[in-house]
UniProtKB/TrEMBL annotation:
Alphabetized Pfam families for the sequence: TetR_C_33, TetR_N
Occurrences of domain HTH tetR-type (ranges): 10-70
Source domain of life: Bacteria
Entry protein name: TetR/AcrR family transcriptional regulator
Keyword Transcription: yes
Alphabetically ordered keywords of this record: DNA-binding, Transcription, Transcription regulation
UniProt cross-references to InterPro entries, sorted A to Z: Homeodomain-like_sf, HTH-type_TetR-like_transc_reg, HTH_TetR, MT1864/Rv1816-like_C, Tet_transcr_reg_TetR-rel_C_sf
Keyword 4Fe-4S: no
PROSITE patterns found in the cross-reference section: HTH_TETR_2
DNA-binding region per UniProt: 33-52
Length: 206
């Protein structure tokens, strides 16, 4: 690993984020610190604070990289432009596979809490919205007769459902409710939800 004078500011940011990802992958978010990152890349903690405002800033940028990696995985899952119902299942399977293969990096997205008074960066929110949009697009193709707001809401409902199944599965909670796999439970959710979504919209009771 090169010393501090051998890297530009951007290069240092990249190697620090890569080191943070490696630490989180091995030890979870609780095992991450600026001291560990600095030691891993051969720099001082002070050098990191010339690049990142604090540890929270480093984690936020690391999590955005994880969202980019997840988005790339999901885009690849529907690259062949399968029928909408198939595409939605492929997106769910891609999300589940990422969570199972990169559990600590995936969990870090949801475990990190900014200090009181700080807001989530716009760039983070935009990356999350970009993933919702993948599902929303397929729902609109599946049921073009429905208004866009229905697909927006449904994309968030489905995403929340699949996410919850992943959380329960990773925590081995599904074993306590029948021993079904993450994939089986997710498949049941999708089958029933998409069947209902494809039905004519029922009028709202007055």
């Amino acid at each position: 690993m090169g010393r501090r004078n051998e890297h530009t500011r951007e290069e240092l940011r990249q190697i620090a984020l890569e080191a943070a990802e490696e630490l989180v992958a091995a030890q979870g978010l609780s095992g991450l610190s600026t001291r560990k990152v600095a030691a891993r890349i051969g720099y001082t903690v002070g050098s990191l604070y010339m690049i990142f405002r604090n540890l929270d800033d480093l984690i936020a940028q690391m999590n955005e990289r994880t969202l980019d990696a997840l988005h790339t995985r999901l885009v690849a899952a529907v690259a062949g432009q399968p029928p909408p119902a198939v595409a939605i299942r492929a997106l769910a399977q891609g999300y589940i596979a990422f969570a199972l293969n990169e559990p600590n990096r995936w969990l870090a997205i949801y475990q990190h809490r900014l200090p009181e008074g700080e807001t989530v960066p716009d760039s983070f929110s935009e990356k999350v919205a970009r993933m919702f949009a993948l599902v929303q697009q397929q729902l609109m193709l599946l049921c073009p007769q429905r208004p866009p707001d229905d697909s927006i809401l449904a994309s968030r409902a489905l995403w929340s459902g699949i996410h919850g199944i992943c959380i329960l599965g990773l925590g081995q909670k599904l074993e306590a409710v029948g021993g079904h796999s993450i994939e089986e439970v997710a498949g049941s959710l999708l089958d029933h939800y998409l069947t209902g979504f494809a039905l004519p919209r029922q009028p709202t009771p007055s």
